[in-house]
Specification:
With about 375 residues, this protein is of the alpha+beta class. It has 11 helices and 11 strands. The protein has 2 domains: about 170 residues, no CATH class; about 170 residues, no CATH class. Helix 3 packs antiparallel against helix 11.
Length: about 375
């Protein structure tokens, strides 16, 4: 091991290096905070996947005799790309849930006119579950939502026990997916509402496609759930971003002060390096490699701690409670990278340039 290498310095100065590594640990740990922010979206991911391909078309009060709605219904049913599940009841509320961050989130639901319509929709959307007991007056939920409420097959779901629920329903199927949707079967003969499923269009494109078919006819096409969720939770990302900048600035000051103390004591050492012929570029490179090595060790330790925390949290607490904390997220990675760069780059620049000016003749 070369005396001038970064590994040599860290090995020979374990105590000092550990102090810096401990402080640098806070930057990868910010990825965990990002995962908590991302967990909000997790609860809507599967529902958003379903609603990307399932749109709801309903009549409007301005269409008093329902003629426009009937004409729109005929147009949609004539389109070979679309599956029209007709006469669904007007939307009923779902079951709100407590998210990983500890606050209550809203709910989502889908109402089908018959068990056959539900089975058709589930087959098209890839929703798996035993629907053999589904009938008029049934509801079904995912296993995750069932765990949150302690529900089991055959239970009654009604307003006396469950918040926001209208009427009395029987839980006749529990789905093995992670959606937080309540699926109803309610036979209604006369409604102005349809569930539309597309095999080729999705998301906002599907809504635009249906709007094109609707044309001048009176009617309403629902807004894509994924678009609405992104809009509603955008402030969380903004707050997280501002928090990253503030925390990183504080960390940068603290870490820079600690490293400054370590490197001031090494002025003579770096003066000797300059005296024996090391260029400023080589001295700067030595400082940068030492700081980067400690940073990499902090990142590795932080990653292990984060994964261990998430694994234990999910297995011992979150999953049994019908919740989940993602292991990795884009917002967490971006937050970590932004924080790490805000801390490391100024530290390397300041310390590297300072040590390049060391002169052995001053001692």
């Amino acid at each position: 091991m070369r005396p001038l290498s970064a590994l040599y310095y860290v090995k020979e100065n374990k105590g000092k290096a550990l102090v810096v590594i401990f402080l640098l640990l806070f930057t990868p740990l910010l990825a965990l905070a990002g995962n908590y922010i991302n967990s909000i979206y997790y609860y809507w991911d599967r529902a958003s996947d379903y609603f990307d391909r399932l749109a709801v078309v309903s009549g409007v009060s301005a269409d008093e005799d329902g003629k426009d709605y009937e004409e729109l219904r005929k147009r949609l049913m004539a389109d070979e790309d679309l599956i029209v599940l007709d006469r669904s009841a007007y939307g009923y509320p779902g079951l709100p849930w407590i998210c990983t961050m500890g606050f209550e989130m809203g709910s989502s639901s889908v109402v089908f006119n018959s068990p056959e319509d539900m089975k058709t929709a589930f087959a098209e959307l890839g929703i798996e579950g035993d629907l053999s007991d589904i009938k008029d007056g049934s509801v079904c939920v995912s296993s995750a939502l069932a765990r949150q409420y302690g529900l089991k097959k055959g239970d009654t779901v009604d307003a006396s026990v469950h918040k926001n629920i209208s009427g009395t329903w029987r839980l006749d199927a529990i789905l093995e997916d992670d959606s937080y949707i309540l699926f109803y079967v309610d036979h209604t003969d006369v409604t102005y509402r349809m569930n539309i499923i597309s095999r080729t269009h999705s998301g906002d494109e599907l809504r635009s496609y249906i709007e094109g078919i609707r044309g001048e006819l009176k009617g309403h096409v629902d807004t894509n759930l994924r678009t609405e969720i992104k809009k509603q939770f955008a402030p969380f990302e903004l707050i997280f971003g501002v928090g990253i900048v503030l925390l990183s600035s504080i960390l940068a000051v603290i870490i820079n002060s600690v490293i400054t103390g370590l490197y001031i004591a090494r002025n003579y050492e770096f003066g000797v390096y300059r005296a024996i012929g090391l260029t400023k570029k080589e001295v700067f490179g030595k400082c940068a490699s030492e700081i980067l090595l400690m940073d990499l060790l902090a990142i590795a330790a932080g990653a292990v701690l984060i994964l261990l925390f998430i694994f234990l949290g999910n297995e011992l607490y979150y999953r049994p409670a019908g919740k989940y904390l993602p292991y990795i997220s884009k917002i967490g990675i971006y937050g970590f990278l932004a924080s790490n760069l805000l801390v490391i780059l100024p530290t390397i620049l300041l310390k590297g340039r300072s040590m390049c000016r060391a002169d052995v003749t001053e001692f």
